[in-house]
Specification:
heterodimer; A: mainly alpha; B: 159 residues; mainly alpha
Chain lengths: 88, 159
């Protein structure tokens, strides 16, 4: 039986998403764009950009498209989902 | 500890609400246990708590944010809040469930052949309206604290 304690333990467990990204590299090639500048361009906080870049938070599809648009790239060039997980 | 502005706000309100709950419970404990809810001392206590919550809320916001404008919540903030609300809701439902069961048992429900005299233990505590109100305030505080703690943890680890 899932107890409330179990839910809380679930909340504090460290997890990373399976989606990897190239944001750090793309920022570097975009004249070393700062996280704050990217955050302003896509309308989120710098902490959110940090979390996305560290693959700790998966952005919504809309936000992912906005990030790709900033670097003038396709979505698949910015975000990648490993092939081994695609049948999960 | 390096905290974002949003995390500082959450921490500020968590401390403030804990102090406010302690203030209410401390004063409620000093009133006679059989004080009716519709009475002058209760009215004064509830009015004081409402005024303190308004003034305290303004003070906490001013201290944490200073002259900076409050930044708008983005999708991650909203997701974190929704997740934390879920934990708070479960805490609230479970706590109220346990409390109602305890309340029911304490009102003389039979516990057949109990070797531990549970009924005697439960019925030794009398629930007056003031005590029920205090327990409800405590449960609400617990749910809010769980919400704030989960939010702080999620902000700390990213999501």
């Amino acid at each position: 039986m899932p107890s409330n304690f179990g839910y809380i333990v679930g909340a504090i467990r460290m997890t990373k998403t399976n989606i990897t990204n190239q944001i750090r590299t793309l920022r570097f090639f975009a004249n070393e764009m700062s996280q704050a500048t990217l955050a302003t361009k896509i309308g989120v906080t710098r902490q959110t950009v940090m979390a996305i870049e560290a693959a700790k938070y998966s952005p919504s599809l809309e936000l992912a498209f906005k990030i790709a648009a900033v670097f003038d790239k396709d979505l698949s060039e910015v975000f990648e989902y490993p092939k081994s997980n695609q049948n999960d | 500890m390096d905290l974002s502005n949003r995390a500082k706000n959450i921490l500020g309100f968590m401390i403030f609400e804990t102090l406010l709950t302690a203030y209410f419970l401390w004063h409620a404990k000093r009133l006679p246990a059989d004080t009716p809810l519709l009475s002058e001392p209760m009215f004064e206590l509830i009015l004081a708590v409402i005024l303190l919550s308004i003034i305290g809320g303004i003070l906490v916001t001013a201290i944490v944010n200073g002259t900076k404008n409050k930044e708008a919540a983005d999708e991650r903030d909203k997701n974190i809040e929704a997740k934390a609300d879920g934990y708070a809701y479960r805490t609230l439902v479970w706590s109220i469930g346990f409390f109602l069961a305890f309340l029911y048992a304490s009102q003389g429900a039979e516990i057949a052949d109990s070797p531990y005299q549970i009924k005697a233990i439960l019925t030794s505590f009398t629930f007056t309206p003031l005590r029920v109100l205090s327990a409800m305030v405590l449960i609400l505080w617990l749910a809010e604290t769980v919400k704030y703690a989960v939010q702080l943890r999620l902000y700390r680890r990213g999501y």
